[in-house]
Amino acid sequence: MKLSSTLLVLAVAAETTVASSWFGTKAVYNKWHETELERWLSDHNIPYPTPADRKDLESTVKANWNAKVGQPYNDWSPSQLSSYLKSKGADAKKSSDSNTDSLIKQVKGYWTESADSGSNAYGSVKDWIFDSWTDSQLKAFLDKNGIPAPQPRKRDTLLATARQNYESVAKKANEYYAYPGAWLYESWSESDLKAFLDERGIPAPQPSTRDKLIASVRRNSRLASRTLQEAAASASSSAAASKESLSDALLDSWSDSQIKEWADKNGIKVPQGSKRNELIALARKHRSALTGDTAASSVSSAYGAATTKANNEFAKATDDASLKKDDAFNSIIGTWSESRLKAYLDARGVPVPQGGKKDELLKQVRLHKTKAASGYSAWTFDTWTLDNLR
To answer: Which Pfam families match (predicted)?
Structure first.
């Protein structure tokens, strides 16, 4: 009997410790105001009693946290599922298998966010919620709130300034900021809100109201940030492999005489009578010179880095391949929505034609295709292939 009592005490103590850990550390929403708890539930279309006391609200959030934060893809539309897979460089399965269940299964294989990591992220919303904003949206946020914009207005400094002033802006407006309300998006137009959703394959709520659009953007902002962060990490880790692939592609496209010319201009001795496979082997041995090639006439640095929204990548190419690149570029941008074309121009600081039709937007995108994007968007997707972009 004594043993049973001891075990009971230990069990209760262990349960208390776990509960304390969950509610005191992991359950970030336990620190939210009732208004924020209700906002989160409303954003995720979860009914709750009104009026409801804090205990009921926390209990309802807790019951749905894993499903909505750890496994949100179960609620996504086919278009959002497909968009997510494309952001991972994966193609949605074709034919009859391309239904919602199979798409969810594919997404699940790439998903890394857990209820716990999501809780940690919501412990400091300001660190990531601005990641998916365009430069012009960041500038508008600062201007609207009377915050001097950094000079020069580079993306990284705009982000830093927005993050530094996030809480003070909320406090000045007497608003909560752990799970922010509509105050954060006051400088966004309804077109901005719809574009954010459209670019990520997220259906706009129907019927659309400003509040519903903001709720959908807010609900998907964490995903948008994670997608950018993961793409950046992937780009960084694959840089060496990407350069190697580029080198191989260049070598395959060059004639023997072009390889010899390149070797000569880079001070690399070529043995007399070398066959093509020997020439390529020699060039690969010195492949580091391929990206710093002094034979500028042989290789053209053809295309600018991509924007975050458009995810375009154009590697260095030979002059002979440039026409094919043009065709591929024109083919891809022809499938883009107007909002995506505007995002491409915006990231490069190109004024977007007011009321411009798609033909005019396409014309401007072609005109500025070699202009590099600035800041974060200039390198985030610079190792993606054309297949990734489709």
So the answer is: Ish1 (PF10281)
Tokens of 269: 């001795």
Beta carbons within 8 Å of 372's beta carbon, 6+ residues apart: 304, 305, 348, 378
Q: Assess contact for 235 and 381: CB atoms under 8 A.
A: yes
Sign of CA dihedral 146, 174, 46, 123: positive
pTM above 0.70, yes or no: no
The structure tokens listed for 362 are: 């396409």
In tens digits, what is the pLDDT along the chain, a chain of 390 residues?
443 444 343 344 444 334 434 444 568 999 999 999 999 999 999 999 888 899 999 999 999 999 999 999 999 999 899 988 988 878 766 534 458 999 999 999 999 999 999 999 999 999 999 999 998 999 999 999 999 988 888 889 999 999 999 999 999 999 999 999 999 999 999 999 999 999 888 999 998 899 999 999 999 999 999 988 887 776 656 555 545 554 666 666 677 777 888 888 888 889 988 888 888 888 888 876 555 443 333 332 322 233 333 333 333 333 444 444 465 567 677 777 777 788 778 777 788 877 778 888 888 888 877 665 544 444 334 444 444 444
Q: How far apart are CA 142 and CA 133, in angstroms?
A: 12
Q: Which of 235, 259, 251 is nearest to 313 (CA)?
A: 235
User: Do the beta carbons of residue 173 and residue 183 sit within 8 Å?
Assistant: yes
The alpha carbon of 152 is separated from its chain's Cα centroid by a whole number of angstroms, namely: 24
* Angstrom distance (rounded) from CA 20 to CA 292: 58
Q: Are 338 and 355 in contact (CB under 8 A)?
A: no
